[in-house]
Design brief:
This protein is of the alpha/beta class. The chain has 15 helices and eleven strands. Strands 1, 2, 3, 4, 5, 10 and 11 form a seven-stranded mixed β-sheet that branches. Strands 7-8-6-9 form a four-stranded mixed β-sheet, covered by helices on one side. It starts with a helix and ends with a helix. Bound molecules: fe (iii) ion (FE). The site of fe (iii) ion has 2 residues, from loops.
């Protein structure tokens, strides 16, 4: 409101004199869980086109969320960017975001990929498929993540810890689609398929599969795509030895998560914040952002990266992602009960 009033005053002042403009320069403060190299260039393009300066602070999502909480109404944060819906919902449930109504965002981003109250919006989609080593696994043996709990896969699957939000969101999505009881039963057997106590990140699961520790890895697609274009030749070699299998294509589809953003509750520059998020779903921004992060765009008509094209098209889960946040605590409880460390 204050900003809008300022702008009216600016317009009036402009008629009289142009001196006031420089003092009124817009800016926006972004708290980003996305690393600088993966977001700064597109924020620079936004600044160039809008004249709005972007101040970027990067850090771990939970650290940024607690920082916003500590700063309270004096927080300079305007936009929070995270790489998992679970964290966006966490920020929302702690009262750190504000509802935004935007025709642009509502028209561009399908309803299941944004918060029902307009407190966060997806900027990219990411999938969590099955990855397998063709030397040891035939694609015809695979069908869904559900079946990885079968006796046949005992000791053959690598997946990271249950403290990881990607896994929590994946389990929350199962709870949403098939209920707690069925998900618990699946989890109890799925943990028996683990080749080792969970450790490392998604890339480590892929590397372990190629090294023979396991035959199957569960990992987000952009990790494998990133390895395929890595500067490190050994990483490229490892990545080439793994194939993507899209699970549940006759059923619910592969698990899909998002990276996204919301406007901070106490944003000093809420108008600029909204403009920035709207810019992020333009074709120009989606092309750069999705490609450089090896993720899937949220709008139609944007090319995928060559690596993602190589993984092929797939059917993704059709779940209101807000539910993944709401069911996060339940998911953690079930994973714990199953002994997923
Ligand atoms: Fe990641």
């Amino acid at each position: 409101m204050f900003k809008r009033r300022l702008r009216v005053i600016t317009a009036v002042a402009l008629a009289i004199s142009s001196i006031s403009i420089s003092a009124m320069a817009d800016e926006v403060n972004v708290y980003s869980a996305r690393k600088e190299a993966l977001i700064k260039p597109i924020l620079d393009q936004f600044s160039e086109q809008s004249g709005i300066k972007v101040n970027l602070i990067t850090g771990k999502a939970d650290a940024l969320i607690s920082r916003m909480k500590t700063e309270g109404k004096f927080s300079p944060a305007d936009v929070l960017v995270t790489t998992d819906v679970g964290r966006l919902h966490r920020a929302k449930s702690q009262g750190l975001l504000q509802p935004i109504s935007s025709d642009v965002l509502e028209a561009s981003i399908s309803a299941n990929l944004r918060d029902g109250n307009g407190e966060w919006f997806a900027l990219t989609k990411r999938a969590r498929p099955i990855m397998y080593v063709p030397e040891r696994v035939n694609a015809s043996e695979l069908s869904s993540v559900d079946e990885l709990a079968d006796e046949k896969w005992k000791g053959r699957v690598c997946i990271r810890s249950s403290s990881n939000i990607y896994n929590q969101s994946m389990v929350a999505s199962l709870i949403e689609q098939q209920g707690s009881r069925k998900t618990q039963a699946w989890l109890n057997n799925f943990v028996k398929s683990f080749a080792r106590p969970p450790k490392g990140g998604d890339r480590d699961q892929i590397k372990a599969a190629v090294a023979g520790v396991c035959d199957i890895a569960i990992a987000n697609s952009y990790y494998l795509a990133g390895m395929l274009v890595s500067n490190d030749e050994s990483e490229r070699e490892v990545a080439k030895k793994v194939k993507v299998f899209w699970p549940s294509q006759d059923g619910r589809g592969a698990h899909v998560n998002i990276s996204g953003a919301g406007v901070a509750k106490h944003a000093p520059n809420a108008d600029a914040a909204k403009k920035l998020i709207e810019f992020m779903v333009t074709k120009q921004a989606q092309e750069w952002y999705a490609k450089h992060n090896q993720e899937y765009p949220v709008i139609d008509g944007v090319d995928w990266s060559p690596e993602l094209l190589g993984f092929g098209e797939f059917k993704g889960e059709n779940v209101r992602l807000q539910r993944l946040g709401e069911l996060n605590a339940d998911a953690v409880k079930l994973m714990d009960k199953a002994g997923w460390r």
